[in-house]
Amino acid sequence: MSLEEQVVELEMRLAFQDDTIAALNDVIVQLQLQMERMQQQIKVLHQRQEESRSFAITPAGQEPPPPHY
Question: pLDDT, tens digit, for every residue of 7-56?
Fold first, then answer.
């Protein structure tokens, strides 16, 4: 293989690797955005869970008597 053919081969490999790196970077960016959305959803669900705990029904023996007693 001549020197020129070797250079052409290396340039083709480099171009392919650049495309692969760009594609992988795009996937990483998408996954990062998805992870951020999921983290936000977890925060919202946690807040809802905490709010629902504050509205939990108390056992019958612990309820205050009705106002007419």
Answer: 999 999 999 999 999 999 999 999 999 999 999 999 999 999 998 888 76
- Exposure pattern of 37-49 as b/e (b: 16+ CB <10 Å)? eeeeeeeeeeeee
CB-based contacts of 9, cutoff 8 Å, min separation 6: 1
CA distance 60 to 58: 6
Is the sign of the CA dihedral 38, 44, 49, 50 positive or negative? positive
**1: Cβ contacts below 8 Å, ≥ 6 apart:** 9
Q: What is the DSSP string of 1-68?
A: --HHHHHHHHHHHHHHHHHHHHHHHHHHHHHHHHHHHHHHHHHHHHHHHHHHHHTPPPPGGGSPPPTT
